[in-house]
Amino acid sequence: MTPDTPASPFEAIRHEAADGNEYWSARELAPLLGYVQWRNFVTALDKARLACANSGQAPADHFADTSNMIPTGKGAQRRVADVHLSRYACYLVVQNADPAKEVVALGQTYFTVQTRRAEQADELAGLTEAQRRIYARYQLADHNNALATTARTAGVITPQDFAIFQDRGYRGLYNGEGAADIARRKGLRPGQRILDHMGATELAANLFRVTQTEEQIRREGIQGREAANAAHEAMGRDVRQFIIERGGTPPEQLPTPAQSIQELQRAERKRLAQGPQLGMFEEELLTDD
To answer: Which residue of 6, 47, 188, 243 pairs with 192 in a disulfide if CB–CB is 3.0 to 4.6 A?
Structure first.
């Protein structure tokens, strides 16, 4: 994080327990999400607990009921209920909070990105950098198709509409650079796709941009090409800001790999040609999109 970059308000209220585990206080999260009255926030907490149980997780592992003493004036104090929330619990809370509150959208981006990063770390454990690139590229192609379908419901209809829509997303994530600017900076020839010349980290940043834009358009029922374009660009900026706040490298400063995705796929096929039969996951990694 650079010295002049403000910390995320959600990161600012993160606590660390004596055992090293992180948690958030529901009492501190509630006003940050725009809730003035605790009883209204309890509704979002209850929904989040239910979502946790429905996902197969034990709510007690993520929602720890506790209490705090707060001042009430003239030196007196009273005990109030609180809940210590894991990162996953915070993610569920903001997903079930009032979407009309502007800060809720910021929280959804923050905790969704954080949670997805943890999930991807598990998925990619043990893969080489080349395999991570191929995997991320495969995922991005799949989610780009889903984004195109959802954007169409918002009024992004023609191929030209979608090209503009995609360009706006890039401009948000890449500090004003559009697709043509990125290709030129990477030294690509006409016809070469910029996604095939990104490292795993850069692909992951774009995957977050795509998945969260698709979800936002569906969740908020965004309509109109310009509204969809604006939402995509804003999401790109949010993901970029998150990367910078966490001390990461902005995507335009990441190096361009020496080999394209297609070259990596050919190398992987050659390596595995004499090996055992490929499993479904490996077949997906080596499938051209």
So the answer is: 188
Q: Do 171 and 237 form a contact (C-beta atoms < 8 A)?
A: no
What is the tens place of the pLDDT at every residue in 145-199? 999 999 999 999 999 999 999 999 999 999 999 999 999 999 999 999 999 999 9
For 39, residues 6+ apart whose C-beta sits below 8 A from its C-beta are none
Q: What count of residues does the chain have?
A: 289
Position of tokens 């308000």? 9
| pLDDT score, position 125 | 59
Domain ranges in the chain are 1-125, 128-285
Q: Which residue has the tokens 């009309």?
A: 100
Kindly give, in sequence order, each residue whose CB lies less than 8 Å from that of residue 271, ignoring residues fewer than 6 positions away: none
CB 257 within 8 A of CB 133: yes
Q: Return the biggest CA–CA distance within the chain.
A: 80
Q: How far apart are CA 223 and CA 246, in angstroms?
A: 32
Strands 22-25 vs 76-85: parallel, antiparallel or unpaired: antiparallel
Helix extents (H) in the chain: 9-12, 26-32, 38-54, 87-95, 102-124, 129-153, 159-173, 179-186, 200-220, 225-245, 261-272, 280-285
pLDDT band at 113 (very low <50, low <70, confident <90, very high): low
